[in-house]
Amino acid sequence: MTQKTIKAIDALEDAQRIALAPFVFQTAVSLRKLGVFNYIFENRDANGVSSQEISEALSIPSYGLGVLLEMAESASLVKKNEAARFELTKTGYFLTYDKTVNVNLNFAHDVCYKGLFHLTDAVTNEKPEGLKEFGEWNTIYEGLSQLAPQVQQSWFEFDHHYSDTIFAEALAIVFEKKPSHIFDIGGNTGKFALQCLANSEDIHITIYDLPGQLKKALANVQNAGFANRISGQEIDWLAAAPKISEGADLIWMSQFLDCFSEEEILKILETCVAAMDQNTYLFITETFTDRQQFSKAKYVLEATSIYFTALANGNSKMYPATVFERLIDTAGLKIEEDRTLGAYHTLFICKKK
Ligand SMILES: C[S@@+](CC[C@H](N)C(=O)[O-])C[C@H]1O[C@@H](n2cnc3c(N)ncnc32)[C@H](O)[C@@H]1O
Question: How far is the CA of 5 from the centre of ligand 1 (A)?
């Protein structure tokens, strides 16, 4: 149904759903955390379960459990069967067992929830005002290695979930180019570097990242036994004149440039161009808003932009590919190959013009 044809009564219900969305969200978080969704699903062959059975089995006070289940029933997360016993709905099932939904929910709850309260200030002040919920940093990246364990875990699970899946496919394309030295810009925890090093005995990787993150990435790679083929370089791309060395055969940037404003992306690309020769490849992989087949994928990317605004840095977003095409061209690069990776990612293989 389009907004034009929607009935007023349905539009009002939608508006109420939005007005009270945090209540439903926190209800889902609590029921999941308390193990209620799991319990209902695991007992699905017992003709549903009663509130009292759940309360006794999971030692949850009955008053609190009762209000959670009422809200969850109205929000269609659980339903009552003919015997007035609770069953999980399909939505409740996905909230409990779908990997992507869980990664998003943990990220929304542990990383974003409190910070989103400052969204309006973030927009007007052009600063990630929500970040003060965690610490006094200019961007979340400066503080990544110092976030509380649960926040850090949900941040990295979100980050890894949206890039891990394409690494194997990307690796095959990377090695088609026969590189011997790769720069991994924004190497994060060293996951991509690890896969490259395990894939080839000849490859050398240099990771570029902020100090805290670089230390972690190098430790991960060294602990995996690749100390002699990994190196690292601290860099802050927001500093006045960042530089990278010459000598890479291939520069790899995965879900990295979306952490910056258009102006900053241009500066990063120009810095890379200055260190490239005619044979150097620059691989850029991103999830672009205008390249998604599924409306829900676009929805997740748009929510990610809100996270960037309120918490990450206050000036970056998930971009459409058209913006990247323009910036790549302006920086003095050409896109030699425009490929799809998995269901959501695009890979631009660039060279110097
Ligand atoms: C979203 S993560 C992407 C990680 C990884 N490449 C992947 O595909 O999962 C962005 C990375 O960029 C790094 N980064 C963000 N801002 C930076 C800055 N100003 N200077 C250097 N690195 C930065 C972060 O520390 C992080 O490792």
Answer: 44
